[in-house]
Design goal:
Layout (H helix, E strand, L loop, with lengths): L1 E3 L5 E3 L6 H24 L7 H18 L11 H21 L2 H5 L10 H12 L1 H19 L4 H53 L1 H15 L2 H20 L10 H14 L9 E3 H5 L7 E4 L6 E3 H21 L6 E7 L3 E8 L8 H7 L4 H12 L3 E6 L5 E8 L7
Parallel strand pairs: 4-6
Antiparallel strand pairs: 1-2, 3-5, 6-7, 7-9, 8-9
């Protein structure tokens, strides 16, 4: 999972699906030791060699006092500890046949460690998975059969119960660990991808500075360079309006747009952005011109300012692709739709379309306009960008932002 830091940047938070199991195992070992001691005290006088049984129970109690917190965390529970823990459990099971009477053993009396033995097997299951659990439970089963001397029904029942449950828990732990690793890796990839996309957009926006420089140098040189500078200035105004002043509805005339762009260019600071809902139609309408037609509802289409800016920027990127790849004579149409559960913007052109595999090839070559400027923005908004292109029949890009998405709140 991820959390927000004080700076607003996401950070990864380590999750451990097995930590509750270790804590539960600690409690299990303590409680079952108490049960085994109580059972021993109640049946003390029925043992054939009660002092020998008491000596083992003392050793078991001392072992627990020294190692009670060994299974509270995976780093403390080492392989050598698990082997020693299982050895003490097996020793207690085998010793029961020596210190207890034959009548009690044949009658199915509990062994000295009793159900405490299950804690040693469960430790193997949580630490090493189902394979370690299978080995540990098999050894415990063999010790119980040796202690009883013959495979009685209750002994077989208890042995199978420990064997099946420990292996099942070990398998579940392995699956949980694999899922945890997969989730952690996915979160790392997502965080790295979003950061790369953010940097790529910042680099893409730096093109504004180049366009401004071309405009100034072209005007100074005159001639054909002046025409090139004029075109660069128009592109800069359109792009800067989206990036820097896109949340402020344009005032409409080219001269006023140029004054706004010059103000942003000279100060380096975008205009103060409004808070609250923003009319998306006001941001898309300035794209209309001789080669671009715009159609939208007669009423404002309100989105939160950040979501409206990102969606308008994605539309601008789609129109940039039309101008760059569809040819000088291509026309484009923008359709804004205000649905109850989503805002949909469709950008369509009558260009030659996109050849099959061209987008994938562009991404491999590092041209990330569609992947980052369009799909990346919509993904950040919780929306989607669908691209449909038929060679010779143009391209259609459908941008959908659900209302109530986190980015739009």
């Amino acid at each position: 999972m991820t959390q927000r830091t004080g700076t607003g940047r996401p950070r990864a938070v380590r999750m451990s699906v097995e930590l509750p199991l270790w804590r539960a195992l600690t409690g299990y070992r303590i409680l079952t030791l108490g049960y085994a001691l109580a059972l021993f005290c109640v049946n003390y006088h029925e043992y054939a060699h009660p002092l020998g049984a008491a000596l083992y129970m003392g050793v078991l109690t001392l072992w627990m006092l020294l190692t009670w917190n060994k299974v509270s965390a995976p780093e403390r529970c080492t392989r050598s500890f698990l082997i020693a823990d299982l050895s003490i459990a097996l020793g207690g099971v085998l010793l029961s046949a020596v210190v207890d009477s034959a009548q009690r053993v044949d009658g199915g009396a509990a062994t000295l460690p009793s159900i405490w033995t299950g804690g040693a097997v469960l430790g193997l299951a949580i630490k090493g998975g189902w394979r370690w659990a299978a080995v540990g439970s098999t050894l415990v089963a063999a010790a119980n059969l040796v202690e009883r001397g013959h495979p009685a029904r209750d002994t077989v029942h208890n042995v199978l119960l420990v064997w099946v449950s420990s292996i099942a828990i070990g398998y579940i732990v392995e699956v949980a660990r694999a899922s945890e690793r997969t989730l952690a890796r996915a979160l790392q990839i997502e965080a790295a991808t979003r950061e790369r996309e953010r940097l790529a957009r910042d680099i893409h926006d730096s093109v504004l500075q180049v366009l401004a420089m071309v405009q100034r140098r072209g005007a100074a040189l005159g001639g054909e360079a002046a025409e090139l500078g004029r075109l660069a200035g128009e592109q800069e105004i359109a792009l800067r309006t989206l990036v820097a002043g896109g949340l402020v509805p344009p005032r409409g005339t080219p001269r006023q747009l140029a004054e706004d762009a010059e103000l942003v260019r000279s100060t380096g600071t975008p205009p103060r952005l409004p808070e609250g809902p923003c009319d998306l139609g006001a941001l898309l309408a300035p794209h209309a011109g001789a080669a671009v037609s715009y159609a939208g509802p007669g009423t404002p289409v309100l989105l939160e300012a950040a979501a409206a800016a990102e969606l308008a920027a994605a539309v601008g990127a789609a129109l940039d692709n039309v101008r760059e790849h569809a040819g000088n004579g291509a026309r484009a149409w923008i359709l804004l739709e205000d649905e109850p559960d989503a805002v949909i913007v469709t950008v369509r052109d009558d260009g030659p379309g996109i050849a099959e595999g061209r987008l994938a090839a562009a991404e491999r070559e590092g041209r990330m306009g569609v992947a980052l400027s369009i799909r990346g923005r919509l993904r950040d908004l919780g929306g989607s960008a669908e691209l449909l292109s038929v060679p010779g029949q143009g391209t259609e890009v459908e941008l959908r932002v659900p209302r109530g998405s986190e980015a739009g709140k």
